[in-house]
Every structure is written in C-alpha cells, then in structure tokens.
Design a protein that fits this description.
- The protein has helices at 22-29, 66-79, 98-106, 122-127, 143-155, 167-170, 203-221, 223-231; strands spanning 3-9, 33-39, 52-53, 63-64, 86-95, 109-114, 119-120, 131-134, 188-189, 192-193.
- It has 232 residues and is α/β, with parallel strands linked by helices.
- The strands form 3 sheets. A 5-stranded parallel sheet has the order 2-1-6-5-8, sandwiched between helices. Strands 3-4-7 form a 3-stranded mixed sheet.
- Helix 3 crosses helix 5 (143-155) and helix 7 packs across helix 8.
- The structure holds adenine (ADE).
- Adenine is lined by residues 89-91, 134-136, 138-140, 143, 146.
Length: 232
C-alpha cells in the first residue's frame, strides 16, 4: 500500500524539493509513497486572499487564520485514509523521535500543516485536535522544511525504499545508541589506518568493538540517551 503524505503549505513550490531526488525521489516515482501538496491560499475567501492577520493582544508578526487553516485541514482529512494523523510542525511541539517516525511510517501516511508567520491561531489546533511536532530546539522560518525532514525520515523506512534490509536495525537510535564509526578503503589514509579489528575477519570481535564504540560515543555525546539506554 502507498504511504500518503498530504502537505498544506503557503509554498507548494518547495515540494517535493529534495524528496524528488535520491532514495525518496525514486520511491516516489515507483509509487511506494505519494505526495499531495495543497496551497492553503486556495482556501482564502477575502478579496485579497489573505491567510493571516495581526495577533490578538498585539505584538509583532502575523498569525494564520483559524478558519482558513481549518478549511484546508478538513479538505485534506476527507481525502485521506482513515487513521491518518494531522500534525502541525512547530518548535513548540513534541520532539520528533525515531520511535515516532517508525510509528508514522507504519501507518497510512500523514497530513502536515505548515505554518509561516508567528504561527497559526491556537483555536484550529484545539478544535481539530492537531498534534504539534518539533524537529529540534531551533527556530526555522516556517514548517515546510520541518515537513520535508519528517517525510524523509518516514519514507526511508517504508518497505522497499532502502533495498538493504537490516540496515535500519543497526543505525543510530534504533538501539537507543549512536552508531559506531565506519571505514572503507584505502587501508591507510593520511597516516590514519583502519582499526585492526575491522580487518581481522573475526565477526564476534568486530561486533564487540562496534558495540563498545557505540556505547562510548553515546556516553560522551549524548548522556541523555545513555541514561535512557541504561534504564531500558
Ligand atoms: N517550524 C519552525 N521551527 C520548527 C521546528 N524546530 N520544528 C518544527 N517546525 C518548525
């Protein structure tokens, strides 16, 4: 079954963008997933087709109107398979994790509402029960790039997209640890040799070395992940 992404945006030209290339682009062309982009402005009603207004209470910037965002979300929901979650990309959202990505990739797809300006009128998120998701603790100029990131993370997990099965089980976060370092030829480069153990042919020793490397890296760079890994 095709995994379906519906993106509601003020900048439809941003899509598929980088997802039209490489693995995701091939999977899109092969029909392993589909991408439907809707211009939120198509739902604007006024003479000037404006989608935003000044914030209630004053302050800088503009806020996307609830009625217009809701009309776009409602139309997308009618077209989407049952059980498709609607997510609003926002730095205030629940942080996106590999676990959540896996869970989204196993479902029918996603409806993604991308904001610009200062954000969207809170009432549309409440009234339509839309979950807010963040891709990290930094502020982008809009949700579109975050939507591309989320879709990329999901699409690469779809069956048949990354040919080499087994690839996912060892990569960063799948085990709760960062991934061990990789090496390839030449055997020595700028005076730096490949670690001997990797040339030993002893698969047990190699697996042990990789595990130790993953643990040491995680401890040093991500003490938060290391604590969680120890407890689980
Ligand atoms: N929109 C702006 N910044 C964002 C972020 N960090 N994550 C998701 N959506 C965003």
């Amino acid at each position: 079954m095709t995994w379906r992404a519906a993106v509601l945006t003020l900048f439809p030209e941003m899509f598929p963008g980088p997802l039209g290339l490489s693995l995701a682009g091939k999977a899109l062309a092969d029909g392993l997933w589909s991408l439907e982009t809707t211009d939120i402005r198509d739902f604007a009603t006024g003479k000037h087709r404006s989608v935003d207004d000044t914030p209630a209470g004053g302050g800088a910037g503009m806020v996307m109107r609830a009625d217009i965002a809701a009309a776009a979300v409602d139309a997308a929901r009618v077209a989407a398979p049952e059980g498709t979650p609607t997510l609003y990309l926002s730095p205030r959202g629940t942080p996106l994790t590999q676990e959540r990505v896996q869970n989204l990739a196993e479902g029918p797809g996603v409806i993604l509402l991308c904001g610009r300006f200062e954000g969207v009128d809170q009432r549309v998120l409440d009234a339509r029960d839309i979950e807010e998701v963040s891709i990290g603790d930094y502020v982008l100029s809009g949700g579109d790039l975050a939507a591309l990131v989320l879709m990329d993370a999901c699409v690469r997990l779809l069956p048949g997209v990354v040919g080499n099965e087994g690839t996912h089980s060892e990569e960063s976060f799948a085990s709760g640890l960062l991934e061990y370092p990789h090496f390839t030829r030449p055997r020595e480069w700028e005076g730096r040799p490949i670690p001997d153990v990797l040339l030993s042919g002893d698969h047990e020793k190699i697996a042990k070395w990789r595990r130790e490397q993953a643990e040491a890296l995680t401890k040093a760079r991500r003490p938060d992940l290391w604590e969680k890994h120890r407890k689980d």
